[in-house]
Amino acid sequence: MIAFSEPGYRSLLTLIQATGFQFALFSDLNYSLAEPGKRCFMRHDIDVSLDFALQMAKLEHSMGIRTTYFVMFRSPLYNLLSRHSSRILHELRRLGHQICLHFDACDMAEAQHSIEHGLRFELDALAFLIGEKVTAFSLHQPTPAVIAQRIEFRDVINTYHPEHLRGVHYLSDSNRDWRGKDPVHEITEAEGSLQILTHPLWWMSESSQVEGCWDAAVLQNLYSAQEQLLATERAYGERRRFEIRRTTSIANANDVGDVKSRMQD
Ligand SMILES: [Zn+2]
């Protein structure tokens, strides 16, 4: 079994290489699938931490591997438009990786516009940020209804479109569980090409627990935000050390409100 850790991710990559796969970017999908041979389309959905993404990207780079990072505009934890995020996007590309869009379609349900309009807007905005066309998008926690819509744009791959990745075997590390599959078996036995979805959060955090990975992501984002505050806001004062204390006593929103009002005193 492969451990969910940085060395574990390195052995996953080593296994993929040793079993005869060539890593391919999503922009090369059509070209790659037309060629003989086994391709591995490594996809990273970046839900909560660009810092962990960069850590993973550096590891891949040290092994001569290029992969595709799907980043989000509406992550609950990072701001893709911040200076810190811009620097990471730049660095990911400098290391030879590709940037694509991770899109939260569920959030569109209440909006005035269609999913297609929202997607088009974010694809264009991301292209503006990185200075080149975005060639693929993945949906964040898509409902079966959204997948069934088979959303299509010309020359843009929808990673959940059954035709776009036809014949490509799919493997995902969701919540540190391969959905009951053994990745070593799946990779060694795969005959054709593979799409592997991994989330840097599960591999680059040092915690052995899923909850601990979340804590690490929250803290990492706080520290990154703090670095920008230190650099740009004189009134911020000294560097702080943050810690997370889990508690069951904050049981509802009213209690949180109480905490907030006490902090304002
Ligand atoms: Zn996601």
Radius of gyration (CA) equals 20 Å
The beta-strand count equals 8
Q: Runs with pLDDT <50, length 5+?
A: 261-265
What is the residue-averaged pLDDT?
90
Report the major sheet. 8 strands, parallel
Structural class: alpha/beta
Return the string of H and E elements: HEHEHEHEHEHEEHEHHH
Bound molecules: zinc ion
User: How many helical stretches?
Assistant: 10
- Bin the helical content: 40-55%
Cα distance, first to last residue? 52 Å
Q: β content, as a range?
A: 5-15%
Describe this structure in words.
Helix 3 runs parallel beside helix 4 (83-94). This protein has 10 helices and 8 strands. It has helices at residues 6-18, 29-34, 50-62, 83-94, 115-130, 144-148, 183-189, 200-204, 210-232, 253-264; strands spanning 21-23, 38-46, 68-72, 98-103, 136-139, 157-158, 169-172, 194-198. Strand 3, helix 4 and strand 4 form a beta-alpha-beta unit. It is an alpha/beta fold and 265 residues long. Strands 1, 2, 3, 4, 5, 6, 7 and 8 form an 8-stranded parallel beta sheet that branches. Zinc ion binds at residues 45, 47, 102, 140-141.
